[in-house]
C-alpha cells in the first residue's frame, strides 16, 4: 500500500517563493505518484522519501524566483525522478522539456504528468550521444539536479545557452572545486545562491558561457 506523505512546509514559505495553492494540489499528485512508483523503481534515495516535500519538492521549487519573467520554455537535463522538472511543470506556465534516457523513468515522468494534469514534453534521449538534436527547443532556462559534474554538465547545456538560455543548477558543497575544474574548458559568468534546503548546497546561476 502506497504511503501518504503530508506536506509539512508552512503555506507562508510556499507563498514566499511564488507557489500557489493550486500548484500545491498538483504537487500533492506528484508526491503520490512518486511514492507509488518508488516501490517499483529507484526514483530518489529511499531514505529521503519520508522527507520528499523538503528534500525534493521545496528544493526544486526554490528555482522559481530565479526564473526570468519572460520564461516560456525550460529544458531539464537528466530528469530522472522528475526533480526539478516536474515541480517546475506544476508551478509554472512555461513549457518544460525533460531529457531522460532511462525508459522506466520516462514512463514515470509521463504518468506523473498525467496524474498532475500538466502538459510537458518528455524526450527519451541520451544527451552525450546527441548533444544538439534537431528537435532541441529554444529555451530561456536550462536546469539540472544531481546529473553530472559541472564541466560535463556545461557541455550538455551549451547548445541551449549559446542561444541565450541561462543555467540554474543544483550543486553541493564541492561547487567551488567544480567551478575551478570547469574554468579550464569554459569561460563562465555565474552567481551562487544559497540553498533554502541545505546549508552546504547552492543554486548555481550561470548567466554566460563560452568555450575557452
Question: Care to describe what's here?
Answer:
It is built from 7 helices and 7 strands, in the order αααβαβαββαβαββ. With 212 residues, it is an alpha/beta fold. The chain has one domain: Rossmann fold (3-Layer(aba) Sandwich). It has a 7-stranded mixed β-sheet, sandwiched between helices. Helix 2 packs antiparallel against helix 4 (85-91) and helix 2 (21-38) runs antiparallel to helix 5. The mean pLDDT is 94.
Helix run count: 7
How many beta-strand segments? Answer: 7
Please indicate the percent range of residues in DSSP E strands (runs of 2 or more). 15-25%
The CATH topology name reads Rossmann fold
Amino acid at each position: 500500500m502506497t504511503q501518504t506523505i503530508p506536506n509539512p512546509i508552512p503555506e507562508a514559505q510556499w507563498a514566499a517563493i511564488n507557489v500557489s495553492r493550486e500548484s500545491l494540489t498538483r504537487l500533492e499528485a506528484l508526491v503520490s505518484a512518486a511514492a507509488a512508483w518508488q516501490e517499483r523503481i529507484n526514483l530518489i534515495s529511499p531514505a529521503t522519501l519520508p522527507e520528499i516535500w523538503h528534500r525534493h519538492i521545496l528544493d526544486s521549487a526554490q528555482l522559481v524566483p530565479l526564473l526570468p519573467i519572460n520564461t516560456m520554455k525550460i529544458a531539464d537535463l537528466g530528469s530522472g525522478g522528475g526533480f526539478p522538472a516536474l515541480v517546475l511543470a506544476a508551478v509554472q506556465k512555461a513549457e518544460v522539456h525533460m531529457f531522460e534516457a532511462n525508459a522506466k523513468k520516462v514512463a514515470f515522468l509521463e504518468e506523473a504528468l498525467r496524474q498532475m494534469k500538466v502538459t510537458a514534453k518528455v524526450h527519451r534521449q541520451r544527451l552525450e550521444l546527441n548533444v544538439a538534436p534537431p528537435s532541441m527547443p529554444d529555451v530561456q532556462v536550462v536546469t539540472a539536479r544531481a546529473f553530472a559534474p559541472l564541466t560535463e554538465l556545461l557541455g550538455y547545456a551549451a547548445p541551449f545557452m549559446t542561444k541565450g538560455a541561462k543555467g540554474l543548477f543544483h550543486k553541493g558543497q564541492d561547487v567551488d572545486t567544480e567551478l575551478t575544474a570547469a574554468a579550464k574548458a569554459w569561460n563562465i559568468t555565474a552567481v551562487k545562491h544559497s540553498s533554502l534546503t541545505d546549508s552546504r548546497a547552492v543554486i548555481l546561476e550561470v548567466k554566460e558561457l563560452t568555450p575557452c
